[in-house]
Amino acid sequence: MLTNKVALISGAASGIGLAAAQILCQKGAHVYIADINEQAAIAAAQSLSAQGLLATGVSLDVTSAEQWQRTIAQIDTEQQRLDVLVNNAGLGEGSTMDDDLELFNRVMNVNVNGVFLGCKYAIPLMAQSGGGSVINISSIYGIVADSQTLAYSTSKGAVRSMTKSLALDCAERNNGVRVNSLHPGFVETPMVINGISALPADVAKEYTARTVGLTPLGRIGQPHELGNVIAFLASDDSSFMTGSEVVVDGGFTAR
């Protein structure tokens, strides 16, 4: 259970982030639903509040240090603690070496810098609160790769390594903060659907058939299946886990 815990989830107005927010709320946490789409974040929080759950919607551009500082300060003022950080916001834009630097940098800025800034500004409050759990959402493409995902794979590989470095840093500081990475496979989220839709039609069809075909369980995942794992990593049930990479991919990387 996560009773009396305070959690912050970035990119939480939809997809895996929203599923995680609902599950953490149901387990007793007060969840701050952060998203660059402020209206969607507030609407999601209101929907959960209407169910008798504890949720607050906030606007957050994860590439902005100032917005991270403002969000953490708000949580400190309102809750005086932070126990769980889920760095979930990300871009799923595909790319190859033929694409320009602007696209590559855009993906890196959100997927890598956004995670760094989240940890930089949230971990001190978590340490002050007596410790907690950071869950950085990477991807199976932080472990393996695809020819159409150059920038995305690079960014998610960086998140994987960053997580391990942060885990060691927190352990050396003895601040009670654990840091783990989650590596989803193909999950039915707006990011995955939109990413595939952005590909040329013939490439998208072949790509979808290939990826689903390579998943031993024969299907893509659902957001709540990742949300349940996030809840486990957020809880004390995972108290001896830090620097770990948790793969939830229907067996894709087992081949």
Element-by-element helix/strand order: EHEHEHEHEHEHHHE
Number of DSSP helical runs? 8
Category from helices, strands and their pairing: alpha/beta
- Tell the overall outline: globular
Q: Helicity range of the residues?
A: 40-55%
List low-pLDDT spans: none
Mean pLDDT across all amino acids: 94
Query: Taking strands numbered 1, 2, ... along the chain, how are they ordered across the largest sheet?
Result: 3-2-1-4-5-6-7
CATH architecture level-2 label of the largest domain: 3-Layer(aba) Sandwich
GO molecular function, one term: glucose 1-dehydrogenase [NAD(P)+] activity
EC number: 1.1.1.47
InterPro entries: NAD(P)-bd_dom_sf (IPR036291), Sc_DH/Rdtase_CS (IPR020904), SDR_fam (IPR002347)
Keywords: Oxidoreductase
Helices and strands, with pairings:
Layout: E1 6-9, H1 15-26, E2 30-35, H2 38-49, E3 55-59, H3 65-79, E4 84-87, H4 101-128, E5 132-137, H5 150-173, E6 177-184, H6 190-197, H7 201-213, H8 223-234, E7 245-248
Parallel strand pairs: 1-2, 1-4, 2-3, 4-5, 5-6, 6-7
Helix pairs in contact: 1-8, 3-4, 4-5
Task: Characterise the protein shown here.
The chain is of the alpha/beta class and 255 residues long. It has 2 domains: 6-185 and 224-248, Rossmann fold, CATH 3.40.50.720; 189-220, no CATH class. The chain has helices at 15-26, 38-49, 65-79, 101-128, 150-173, 190-197, 201-213, 223-234; strands at residues 6-9, 30-35, 55-59, 84-87, 132-137, 177-184, 245-248. Strands 3-2-1-4-5-6-7 form a 7-stranded parallel sheet, with helices on both faces. Helix 4 packs parallel to helix 5. The radius of gyration is 17 Å and the shape is globular. The two termini are 35 Å apart. The model has no long low-confidence stretch (mean pLDDT 94).
